[in-house]
Amino acid sequence: MGKIIVGVIVVVAVIGFMLTRTTDDAVVTKSDSNTETAMKAGDVKEFSMTSFYDEKGKWFSLKEISVKKGDVVRIKVTNVKGTHDFNIDEYGIKKATPLNQEVIIEFTADKVGEFEYYCSMPGHRQAGQFGKLIVKE
After folding, report:
1. Is residue 23 part of a domain?
2. N or C: which end of the chain has fewer CB within 10 A?
3. Residue 101 is part of a domain; what is its CATH number?
4. Taking the model in full, what pTM does it have?
5. What's the total number of domains in the chain?
């Protein structure tokens, strides 16, 4: 009887250890636009910006984002005034940004170069609502 109790305690301890264990090599899988993206925990580069207009033009508060190839990019966009969206053509990103809601855009930077992000509402890009995504080797 004692051996059974010890065996049960060992099994419970091993299961508990496995459930609470975390490592730097943990892999998270995210599905976005029917594409599976495998990311290592900790490789996410996060940015926040607001989208708005004023008497001088239409804007994103962040004009430049710089990352390395392979980084997972997470951009949080909050539209605080007007009707806007967020686009990066080379990455196939086109997201509506409803008023007063945080929208999260996430993708893997798998292309090296400089890419423009912008609002596609009529006249917004021309009025200054754009920025630059720089992806370095």
Report:
1. no
2. N
3. 2.60.40.420
4. 0.69
5. 1
* Partner residues linked to 48 by β-bridges: 76
CB atoms within 10 A of CB 72: 21
Q: Is 105 exposed, middle or buried (0-12, 13-18, 19+ CB in 10 A)?
A: buried
Structure tokens, 85: 């969206």
6 within domain boundaries? no
Contacts of 52 (CB under 8 A, 6+ apart): 58, 59, 61, 79, 80, 81, 82, 84
Is 21 within a domain?
A: no
Give per-residue pLDDT as tens, 31-68: 333 333 334 444 899 999 999 999 999 999 999 999 99
Q: Is residue 19 part of a domain?
A: no
- Say which amino acid occupies 84: H
Per residue, what are the HEC states of the chain?
Answer: CHHHHHHHHHHHHHHHHHHHCCCCCCEEEEEECCEEEEEECCCEEEEEEEEEEECCEEEECCCEEEEECCCEEEEEEEECCCCEEEEEHHHCEEEEECECCEEEEEEECCCCEEEEEECCCCCCCCCCCEEEEEEEC
Q: From CA 136, how far away is CA 70, in angstroms rounded?
A: 9
